[in-house]
Design goal:
By secondary structure, this protein is an alpha+beta fold. Helices cover 31% and strands 40% of the residues. It is built from four helices and six strands; from the N terminus they run H-H-E-E-E-H-E-H-E-E. The chain has a six-stranded mixed beta sheet with strand order 1-2-3-4-6-5, sandwiched between helices.
Length: 141
């Protein structure tokens, strides 16, 4: 992911989330040196992820696939890529948060062996107040 990808990233982000990341969130991740990757096919941006790796741990901050390309294996491919990158950068475990209401994402992560270790109360903004986050982890070693 580069600065010139952000318009396309934001088009996906805004279309699939009720409370999307802002362009500034993505720009900050790029400036901070996080591992920001895009998936393109035939020049079209299909999805992306943002991964932070530090102190032997990786945190998958965002993984998204455009609505027209969901349920075609692209999310699985990005999860595999994020796992491989985290390992390559020395992470022994991978963490992420997911909304309890996002059953499709939970199913995806469960297929890879992620397990729930905690709940962050009121983590996500929601239409009616706030929504909790399930904290999932996967050992990489």
């Amino acid at each position: 992911m580069r600065e010139h990808d952000l318009a396309e990233v934001m088009a996906i982000e805004s279309a699939i989330y009720s409370h999307p990341w802002t362009r500034g969130n993505f720009a900050d991740a790029l400036r901070a040196g996080y591992e920001c990757r895009v998936l393109r096919f035939g020049g079209e941006l299909l999805g992306y992820f943002v991964l932070m790796v530090a102190a032997g741990e990786a945190h998958l901050l965002n993984l998204s696939i455009g609505a027209a390309h969901q349920r075609a294996g692209h999310g699985s491919g990005l999860v595999r890529d994020a796992m491989a990158l985290a390992r390559e950068l020395g992470a022994k475990s991978l963490f992420l948060e997911v909304r309890p209401s996002n059953r499709a994402a939970q199913a995806l992560y469960t297929r890879f062996g992620f397990r729930k270790i905690a709940v962050r109360r009121g983590y996500y903004p929601a239409h009616a107040g706030r929504e909790d986050a399930l904290v999932l982890t996967l050992p990489l070693a």
